[in-house]
Amino acid sequence: MDIRRRTVQLDSEAIARLFPADVSVCIASPDMYRARLFPAEAALLARAVERRRAEFTAGRAAARAALARFGLPACPIPRGPGREPVWPRGFSGSITHCDGFCCAVVTRVSELPSLGIDVEAGGPLEDSVARLICRPEEFAHFAGLPDLPGASWARLAFSAKEAFHKCCYPLTGQMLDFLDVRVRFAASDGTATGTFTMAVVAPGRGRALPPHSTMGAWAVDDARVYAAVAARAPMLL
Ligand SMILES: CC(C)(COP(=O)(O)OP(=O)(O)OC[C@H]1O[C@@H](n2cnc3c(N)ncnc32)[C@H](O)[C@@H]1OP(=O)(O)O)[C@@H](O)C(=O)NCCC(=O)NCCS
Predict the structure, then answer these.
(1) Any idea what the CATH number is for the domain that residue 201 is in?
(2) Whose CA is nearest to atom 27 of ligand 1?
(3) Candidate from 83, 119, 178 with most ligand 1 atoms within 8 A of CB, to mutate
(4) d(CA 28, CA 38)
(5) Is the model's pTM score more than 0.70?
(6) Which strand (E) or helix (H) includes residue 128?
């Protein structure tokens, strides 16, 4: 069984479809890597190397463009104690960058109180790294899944766990290790996208998790793997 590989790269509409509500997605354009920052943001880069400056700048510019689609004027997006972006009141979002690709997703808190997006370059994950990311029962689960051309399930698990962290941390302030959580993917033959569930399996962890943050969606294309997690408001359950 083979999952058909996409021939094009995911666009912002396809990324938006990974979320269960109306989100605004902006994939950074080349000029966004040289955009102007607000002074409070530029101050965060005092000791940053050029590459880091560029990716941070693209993330902030993409986030502002995504927020503008909700009618929000440009405003600073500072950084919280866990390095998370601090979104304007009433909005939630997430930022990811990898190898010349950067995107920001935002929505209203009333739709989704928190979001996590993670994008990683495709290809397999080195075995020594995969063992730090995935639990033994996850490897057994991957072995029963269809092939994932251009990437591996371990690589996708890495991305899914990072998206999960980005979604949960702003709400819980809790740091989780990769091996504290277990992912299970659902995949159907003939598509390069699917869903996943995430369970916190470390004893005593995860009690503060927001409702529905344990559901996510994934996609792969020729270049990258994509993972999205959203926390839903309790009243929307
Ligand atoms: C934070 C982390 C997830 C970022 O992932 P990454 O693949 O290295 O980098 P990405 O480009 O995809 O994402 C970086 C962006 O994530 C966001 N981010 C960083 N820390 C965050 C946090 N605690 N909560 C939410 N978002 C966060 C930031 O916007 C950052 O970009 P910026 O600094 O330019 O604003 C990762 O570095 C990390 O610390 N992982 C350990 C924790 C974890 O993932 N556990 C998994 C088990 S749940």
Answers:
(1) 3.90.470
(2) 84
(3) 83
(4) 17
(5) yes
(6) helix 127-133
